[in-house]
Amino acid sequence: MEPKVLDLRQERCPMALLLAKRHTKGLTSGEQIEIFVSDSNSMHDITRFLQRHLFSLTCKDMDGYYSMQVIKEPF
């Protein structure tokens, strides 16, 4: 199975947050997605949203962007 990747490096909030919400909403329990963002405000907004909605999240500061490993937690 190919890992899911959502590249939002060209987007800024609120569009980055809206797209992240749309793509993570369809994840099933245990499913993963990697999200790339370049805007620190978008990274903070997406992080806040995911932490409130049963997602496990690991963020890495890459060279010029952030990589967010997201896993849908079981209920």
From TrEMBL:
It holds the Pfam family TusA. The keyword Transferase applies. Residues 4-71 form the UPF0033 domain. Keywords: Transferase. GO terms for molecular function: transferase activity. The keyword Transferase applies. InterPro entries: TusA-like, TusA-like_sf. This is Sulfurtransferase TusA family protein.
